[in-house]
Amino acid sequence: MGYFACGSVRLRILEPMRITLVILLILTGYVASARQVEKEFIKNLNAFCGKSFAGKAVFPEEEKNPFKGQALKITFSTCTDKEVRIPFQVGEDKSRTWVLTLDEKGLLLKHDHRHEDGTPDKVTMYGGYAKAGGSALEHAFPADAYTAELIPAAATNEWSLVLSKDKKTLSYILKRDGQLRFHADFDLSKPL
Predict the structure, then answer these.
(1) d(C-alpha 22, C-alpha 28), whole Å
(2) pTM of this prediction?
(3) Tens digits of per-residue pLDDT, 102-128?
(4) How far apart are CA 131 and CA 99, in angstroms?
(5) What's the rounded Cα separation, in Å, for the pair 86 and 76?
(6) What tens digit of pLDDT does each residue of 62-96 get?
(7) What's the CATH superfamily of 42-187?
(8) Domain edges within the chain
(9) Dihedral angle computed from the Cα positions of residues 29, 147, 42 and 119, in that order, rounded to the nearest 10 degrees
């Protein structure tokens, strides 16, 4: 048994309570560290604020690619320490925006789909929070409960945003059931 002192009062703490306290302290440090990494990731993306970049689909192969023959472009349009909005244009279709938000729960990726008049599509705001193990250069976002309800087939989706070590490429990767479904690379070394 150990003791806990608070002012002039000493309380005996059972060993399991001491272990719980140590675990809570470790987790608090881990969460603080994870938030710092997520802030660094946002900061790295914000370095491209106001710029647009061309991309290309790497997977699936061209004949199976739903974006075949269409130009891909991203624009870092909104950049704060809490949010990054990246419209993703496919050909003339400007309906998609990736929205990264840093809140008390962590780093959240949502896909905002809108009609030409700005009204939300019926399939919009799907995504999820970054899972543990991300870095200042990459994060993976498993589908959340809202996504699974909105798009049942996407319940196992995991999206990744990956900056290359030299920060010259941003990759957007989608996996479903652990299998690669889509991958596009954007050349950050050549603003449009």
Answers:
(1) 10
(2) 0.82
(3) 999 999 999 999 999 999 999 999 999
(4) 16
(5) 5
(6) 777 778 888 999 999 999 999 999 999 999 999 99
(7) Calycin beta-barrel core domain (2.40.128.20)
(8) 42-187
(9) -140
